[in-house]
Amino acid sequence: MTSQTTLDKAGQGDGPPAGPSEATPGKGLRGHPWFTLFTVAVGVMMVALDGTIVAIANPAIASDLGATLADVQWITNAYFLALAVSLITAGKLGDRFGHRQTFLIGVVGFAAASGAIGLSDSITLVIVFRVLQGLFGALLMPAALGLLRATFPAEKLNMAIGIWGMVIGASTAGGPILGGVLVEHVNWQSVFFINVPVGVLAVALGAWILLDHRAENAPRSFDIPGIVLLSGAMFCLVWALIKAPEWGWGDGRTWAFIGASVAGFLVFAFWETKVKEPLIPLALFRSVPLSAGVVLMVLMAIAFMGGLFFVTFYLQNVHGLSPVDAGLHLLPLTGMMIVGSPLAGVMITKVGPRIPLAGGMACTALAMYGISTLEKSTGSLAMSVWFALLGLGLAPVMVGATEVIVGNAPLELSGVAGGLQQSAMQVGGSLGTAVLGAVMASKVDGDLPGNWAKAGLPPLTPEQAGQASEAVQVGVPPVAKGTPEAIAAKITDVAHDTFISGMSLASLVAAGVAAAAVLVALLTKRGENAEAGAGVGHI
């Protein structure tokens, strides 16, 4: 192995950063930065796509396999729970054994689990293999960032992360469109089978192109108690957020899991100060920019994923669009992320991350405020303006916050830093959906009885009122079979008006979160250790 420039305790090299020519041994395409980026993008695309593409297939899965609503919810929850709990540990595995090996194992496992889901004949097997998808996806994502960090020189790293973020954004937003086409014209199994050829391509490219990079002072042991404590704390937190809409925020079970999570994190933090090679050296968080980047990623995900959650219901249940048409209406958001992410990478390289990040969160806040003004009669053009502004705001945040987190961590902890970045996004998304969902539920519960009475509709029993509220929270009019047309029209108007009032309040809360994130963005700065990247030795 060629010797790496030795890193000091802060993770900075003693010598000048090496360029890409020094980082590649001249063996054809192996280790080439841009081909490395293309390879990891193919793998990452599978994981990002699966976060949203499956939602379109859920009704068909439920019908074909006889699944209940709770079963269908677990198709999504099992995936995100496994992903969120294991991301940081998976990043540590990459730091220990090399990101190339970890990436390839993640791709193979993810593609195999996807194929197994397509062959499953019971909902139990689907959920089990979704857990495996999440675990292998967790191996893949931090390893991809670790490979980019080690391959690209500092002056090109932001552009690489920009393209990486573009792939994630485009895949996430394009999932419902592709899923709708596959389910409508093929079958629900095709949503999972599509990952198999993509995985084969990623493995073939990875075996040919990817070059392993490992820091000399990479960890050589595992903090098993730390892994157990962190995984348990993350599980309790994400589980509470998943179950809170069902149990209620005032339920003792919700707060029992939140309390267990807090206790787990405190014990984990104490243990990390005692172990020789901790899972997450707490000294990482002495870096104010890195800590700010993690908080910023959480706040961004709360505003984006939580706010956008209701927009899909608005498009489909209020405007009556099909899933494919709803996805097409979100193309301005996708398009701006595709265009904006590489441009954000260039801008961050020139002026640093602080201004682009603050500006991006300000645009996100304005976009969420605009979404709060949407009505039943709002046309496609007006929607497109706000969706495009949202994509424009998110692009620099996805790129800049990632660079701030990964670039401010020592090279030997780049996998852990990548896991932190992804975990922050997963927790923020779960938190946003849960908290904004509670805001929506509270608003609907408060407004629906009065709106119902004002419309002159027959009074509801407490049980009927509860069922009606649950339906209205996702924009569905609670119209019973056989209801006269005139009364059904009144119920529909009340349901849509009440849903929109709830979505408006939730969007305003999301806008407030994004506005607070502007202040956090001002604490960020360029990664102090980014220059350590391209001079790594090869194995």
UniProtKB/TrEMBL annotation:
GO cellular component: plasma membrane
A molecular function GO annotation: transmembrane transporter activity
Location (main, coarse): membrane
InterPro entries assigned to the protein according to its UniProt record, in alphabetical order: EmrB-like (IPR004638), MFS (IPR011701), MFS_dom (IPR020846), MFS_trans_sf (IPR036259)
SUPFAM superfamilies: MFS general substrate transporter
Compartmental location: Cell membrane
Gene3D superfamilies linked: MFS general substrate transporter like domains, Multidrug resistance protein D
Transmembrane segments: 34-57, 72-90, 102-119, 125-148, 160-182, 188-210, 222-242, 254-271, 292-315, 327-348, 355-374, 386-411, 499-523
Keywords: Cell membrane, Membrane, Transmembrane, Transmembrane helix, Transport
Domain called Major facilitator superfamily (MFS) profile: residue spans: 36-529
UniProt xrefs under CDD domains: MFS_MMR_MDR_like
Membrane disposition: Multi-pass membrane protein
Region annotated Disordered, chain positions: 1-27
Superkingdom assignment: Bacteria
Pfam family, one: MFS_1
NCBIfam families cross-referenced by the UniProt entry: efflux_EmrB
Name assigned to this protein: MFS transporter
